[in-house]
Every structure is written in structure tokens, then in C-alpha cells.
Amino acid sequence: MKAGKEDPNGTVYVVAGTTGKKHYDAVADEKFDYVIMENIAVSMQAKVDKDQITFTTITSYGETINQFTVINPDYHEEEEVE
Questions:
Q1: Over the stretch 17-43, which tens digit does the pLDDT of each residue have?
Q2: Do the domain assignments include residue 39?
Q3: pTM of the full predicted structure?
Q4: Whole domain around residue 53: which residue ranges?
């Protein structure tokens, strides 16, 4: 956020629920793109490539429940020097 408005070049916060038996109620509002309200254990995986990072949220049963990729549009691979 900058000056109270969303900044598309700003920080992306990633919150991955719980992996234990204790669960708390989530707040499902406009601040979050995705909220799962089930009391299930989840974990998050992150795969980093040269110009992007992909986050995958999975249940303890191996089911993918959410996935998204953040791409760096300013990335330019340097040319190889011979």
C-alpha cells in the first residue's frame, strides 16, 4: 500500500495456516485473495525460478488447495559472454 492505495509493485504477504491440531478461526475479508475455513492441516511449498516464484498450498493428504505465481517483469537474463 502507498498512500492508502494498493501498490501492484509492493510486497506480497503469504500466510499458510497450521500444521498442528490447534486451529483458530480465520477472518475472511477483502484483505485476502484466498481463505480456507476448514480445520485441516496445510503446508506451503515455494518453487523459485529465474524470474518467478510459485507458491503451492497442500493439505496433509497431499491435495493442492491453492497455487499462485508471482512473476518479476523486470527480470532480464544476461547474455552469455564467449
A1: 666 677 666 677 776 676 766 777 888
A2: yes
A3: 0.63
A4: 1-72
From residue 70, give the alpha-carbon distance in Å to each of 8, 11, 63, 66: 11, 11, 21, 14
Angle value at C-alpha 77, between 75 and 82, nearest 5 degrees: 160
Total of domains in the chain: 1
Residue 77 lies in a domain: no
CA proximity to 45, closest of 22, 69, 72, 76 = 69
Tell me the average pLDDT of the chain. 78
In a domain, 81, yes or no: no
Q: Is residue 19 situated within a structural domain?
A: yes
